[in-house]
């Protein structure tokens, strides 16, 4: 009868070679968004492919462990992820929102104290709480706004709240 290996990784299972390679790569992406396809493409380009099912399984485990954050940006598009690390410092960090460019699809990670002020206003005056995992602001990124004939105007014609 084989003995089960007991170690500090019991909660997450054994440390496999694929998990270690995946963690090393995700560490290099810290602060950037990625999809499972991005990961698979990276390893395929390196000539060391990891199966898509394996990547999904490992990423979902990392989400459960709290070291990867999962975001659903648009219905019908794959989830994107962000490596946030194994330290627990991120638990006290401000929520993260996203801006998505409607022209090029760029996704901008948004940490901004002004959003916290806006959240406070929504809660106090409108009894509403934003969900940072699902809140996406749509518009044009800096690059696209300069070469686009479309101009975004405030609903009140730019006069500001009266």
Gist of the model:
With 162 residues, this protein is an alpha+beta fold.
Give a verbal description of the structure:
The protein is an alpha+beta fold. The protein folds into two domains: 1-93, Orthogonal Bundle (Arc Repressor Mutant, subunit A), CATH 1.10.10.10; 94-162, Dna Ligase, domain 1. The chain contains five helices and six strands. It has helices at residues 17-28, 36-45, 52-65, 113-126, 142-146; strands at 33-34, 68-71, 80-83, 97-101, 107-110, 136-139. The strands form two sheets. A three-stranded antiparallel sheet has the order 1-3-2. Strands 5-4-6 form a three-stranded mixed sheet, with no helix packed on it. A hairpin with a 5-residue loop joins strand 4 and strand 5 (107-110). Helix 2 packs across helix 3 (52-65). The chain is globular.
